[in-house]
Specification:
By secondary structure, this protein is mainly alpha-helical. Helix 2 packs across helix 3 and helix 3 runs antiparallel to helix 4. The longest helix has 40 residues. Keywords: DNA-binding, Transcription, Transcription regulation.
């Protein structure tokens, strides 16, 4: 594995560990694609730092377990905003 990829994996792993951000948020913050971030955190990080990879995987598992709630909340907000716009135009 190239040294640049190893460094990126560690940086992304530490970012998730320190902040608890989702893969999508880490991708946005770091400028890498979601696919790259996900692969780095779930596959490559194990080869670089097993202990960090274990902690990151627990955070990612938590995010996966609550994603249906986040999705529902986003949909609720979307419909609320649409309703407010409709009320303003009437």
């Amino acid at each position: 594995m190239h040294e640049q990829i190893r460094k990126r994996c560690l940086e992304l792993g530490e970012l998730v560990h320190e902040t608890g951000l989702t893969v999508r948020a880490v991708a946005k913050k770091s400028g890498y694609s979601k696919s790259t971030v996900h692969k780095d955190l779930t596959e490559r990080l194990k080869l670089v730092n097993e202990a960090l990879a274990k902690e990151v995987s627990e955070i990612l598992a938590y995010h996966k377990s609550i994603r249906h709630i986040r999705g529902g909340e986003a949909t609720k907000q979307m419909w609320k905003q649409k309703e407010e716009k409709t009320q303003k135009t009437l």
